[in-house]
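To: structure desk
From: M.T.
Subject: fold request, one chain
Message: Could you run this one when you get a chance? Sequence is below, nothing fancy, just the single chain.
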Amino acid sequence: MKAMRRFVVGVCAAAGFAVAAGADAQAACSRVSVKGEGVTKEIAREMAKINLDFAVSSKGAKAAGPVAYKCGAPGVLLLTSCTAKQRACT
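Reply: Done. Structure tokens follow.
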């Protein structure tokens, strides 16, 4: 009976630690959003990706999850603008 109680207490302590560690990791994440411009949509998207990589690394974070792109119609000087968003965790 005493061994079973120790086992249950140990499992509860481990579960509590895992939940606390998961909450800390989740709290250290943020959403990074950058823009890129180019003559074509492909170039604008690539520039946004390069800017996103630079922004995440300059924060000292690591990218987490997929990158979401949103590109608009050509604007000033016929340049296409794309926005890249991604989660970054420290």
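Reply (cont.): Residues 11 and 17 are 10 Å apart (CA to CA). Let me know if you need anything else for the meeting.
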